[in-house]
């Protein structure tokens, strides 16, 4: 059983009468794709191979976007930065707010 099937089973358990058809899309929109540890390691290696170390927010953000097809969240930026720092790379401050519930547009106002 795949992740999507497990998620749908979880939703169905929370909606004993069934998930209303119009609720599926908004429920899926609440989910954020998280990078796996393997994807983070792969991104770190890619940045090193391409000579992009020390990496900046744009380099890391583009790498995350290419893997998730989503705008990088502050939490994901932080996770990647921590792994790179842990490997001894000098990475600029990527530690922004980690509250993913506030859209980026509202943070910048």
Automatic annotation (TrEMBL):
Biased composition (Acidic residues): 90-103
UniProt protein name: DUF3349 domain-containing protein
Short name of one Pfam family: DUF3349
Superkingdom assignment: Bacteria
InterPro entries: DUF3349, DUF3349_helical
Positions of the UniProt region annotated as Disordered: 88-109
